[in-house]
Amino acid sequence: MTSSHPSLSNGSSNGRVVIVGASLAGLRAAETLRAEGFTGQLTLIGDEPYEPYDRPPLSKTVQAGWISEEHTTLPRRRDVAAEWLLGTPATGLDLPNRQVLLADGRQVPFDRLLIATGTRARPWPDKEQAALDGVFIVHTRDDAARLHARLAAGPKRVLVIGAGFTGSEVASVCRELGLEVTVTERSVAPLAGALGQAAGTFAAYLQRQHGVDLRCNTTVLVLEGNAQKKLRRAQLSDGNELDVEVAVVALGSLRNTEWLQGAGLAADARGVVCDASCRAFDADGVVTDDIFVAGDVARWPHPLYDGQLLVVEHWSNAVTQAETAAHNMLASSATRRAHKHLPSFWSNQFGVNIKAIGLPTIADTIVLTQGSIEERRLVAAYGHQGHIVAAVAVNAPRSLPAYQGLIEARAPFPPELHASNGPTELHPLPAGFPKRGQPTHDPGAVPTGAGPNTPEQRISEEVLKLLDPRVPLGAPPLMMMHANNMDMGTRSVMQEGHTGEMRS
Questions:
Q1: pLDDT, position 463
Q2: Which part of the chain is the Reductase C-terminal domain (predicted)?
Q3: What is the three-class DSSP state of 260?
Q4: CA-CA distance, 421 to 459, in Å (whole number)?
Q5: pLDDT of the residue at 447
Q6: Has domain 344-430 been given CATH number 3.30.390.30?
């Protein structure tokens, strides 16, 4: 069944297509539209003034000084012959009149629409502290340029708040630059949100081997500035105070869906729900024919994961989902494709390459299948309810295609590989993933519930307070007792970013 919204006939190669989101997914979708014969009017809307650029280098190679942020512009596969509306964000969607509303008052008409608005960095919850000179996030080109300039100036100590991939990569660059760096992580280990506690202990070993002052089960309570509003000190939940000149807030991301409020789509803070062909659902759970979704903002069903809607913040998923969405925007019902991309991601940090495939975050068990920690070359497989669901490789990326085949075949866990560099006996361990909904974690790929009409979970005031990244996971320290007077702005920021995925 489809919605009754007016649309072009299936297979049309003309008309007006608007893409909201001028980053990786938006560009690749535009290129695919032209490659597959779209000859109509094409418009891309972006909130930043820059042409599409690559974000992964911003926390790594840009900070190390290997390339400048200006050299992260994405290569073009072809001329997309598009109208570019850059530097002005979309603020609303008028479905009855087929228009995207812009912040400057313009109204952009469309026949078909692709939503690819992605994510933004989760801010530090105290706005006054977040505005201190020396407090940074890393998400945009401008963010990266500002942080690089400050790191190049040689601060005495850098504080990184959150040890997910972004925070860990920034810490790695700091050590490459010879800077003293302290990393605070709310959970028990770095990368625990993406890879689990068991794998995170290896990440902790790497960080400490490279001289990082790593403090797990620890949060930052307060960022203090001087009279000139420059960052000078941080109070930690372990009772220590640190003199710091730079703090990098790496608390994960928020999906850019606020502009869709009241538009009539199945969209909330978890993302925009679409089917396997990337067509958006409306608020009544009816799939649309002419509204599509791709990239980090999409919630979509993967056939391997029991009907759960996934959100995937990976480079490769943004590309493949954009290509699928663009193909389906032009396809007839008989020639539509399903988006079945298996999540995959990689990171270079502390002298090692970490690459994963599948969905580690649903796993309950992990087992070392190849290599060893001592040689810093290993592969571990993740299991869920007796099936292999993911694998992570350290300095062994060529091993992963074999695991991809096992994951796609829903092979039994633990896998029997008989690898020459495998252990004589497999010893599965609890994977150790933290509770979801904690702002310090950036898992990269997680299930978000089943069905387009599944509501976000209501959160009690008490639980809402515990989602504040300043509060440790255990009992709050005594000095936090006076922090219960959080302003409403802080509470709304916390609730806005909650994914509705609490589990015990």
A1: 54
A2: 345-418
A3: helix
A4: 47
A5: 82
A6: yes
pLDDT of residue 342: 95
Tokens representing 419 are 């690898």
**Are residues 186 and 472 in contact, defined by beta-carbon separation less than 8 angstroms?**
yes
Residues 172 and 210 sit within 8 Å (Cβ to Cβ): yes
3-state secondary structure at position 2: strand
d(CA 261, CA 28): 26
Residue 416 has what pLDDT?
86
Q: Is 162 left (phi over 0), alpha (psi -120 to 50) or beta?
A: left
Q: Span 127-253: which CATH code?
A: 3.50.50.60
User: Cα(217)–Cα(348) distance, rounded to whole angstroms?
Assistant: 24
DSSP string covering 320-349: HHHHHHHHHHH--GGG-----PPPEEEEEE
Count of beta carbons in the 10 Å neighbourhood of residue 262: 11
Considering the chain, tell me which residue range(s) the CATH 3.50.50.60 domain(s) occupy: 16-121+254-335, 127-253
Q: Higher model confidence: residue 44 or residue 482?
A: 44
Query: What H or E segment, with its residue span, contains residue 248?
Result: strand 246-249
Specify the fold of 16-121+254-335. FAD/NAD(P)-binding domain (3.50.50)
Query: How many whole angstroms separate alpha carbon 459 and alpha carbon 400?
Result: 39
Query: Which is it for strands 377-384 and 241-243: parallel, antiparallel or unpaired?
Result: unpaired
